[in-house]
Fold this sequence. Notes:
Two copies of one chain form a homodimer. Chain A is mainly α. Chain A contains five helices and no strands. Chain A has helices spanning 4-9, 12-18, 37-48, 57-65, 69-80. Chain A is globular. The mean pLDDT of chain A is 95. At the A-B interface, helix 3 of A face helix 3 of B.
Amino acid sequence: AGDAAAGKGKSAVCATCHGPTGVAIAPMYPNLAGQNAAYLESSLKAYRKNERKGGMSAVMTPMAASLSDQDIADLAAYFSTQTLGKK
Amino acid sequence: AGDAAAGKGKSAVCATCHGPTGVAIAPMYPNLAGQNAAYLESSLKAYRKNERKGGMSAVMTPMAASLSDQDIADLAAYFSTQTLGKK
Lengths: 87, 87
């Protein structure tokens, strides 16, 4: 299972676009805060397997390529437990 | 631009997995509530252009294929304005 604290430690590069707690800095990027951990894992693995084209895949595919299963689980645990808050 | 009220009217089929207000019924499906509208549009268009494989693309690609740009904008407007609430 993922470790949210470890995920926080690995989230610096994600925070660049998705924000430090998963509230995206621009509308083109998805919010990750409060998203389902299983879905976050599924998305990261899809990028890692080069299964997603279009959108921001040109950025996300290489990002995900360097992540281990544990990294993915930790990052998913971290962002899924953040609060999106009122828009 | 999208019309949230019109989007609500078109959201019945989405609600099956994503919940009536975008809080997914199962962890494998993404929450849509409070997600950025521009990202929701980008995702639906990626599915519509068959740019996403893996995950639930087998379900989402045909779903998106039948949507017009206006449908996509309305659905994005609707779900993005819903509240995710405390997990």
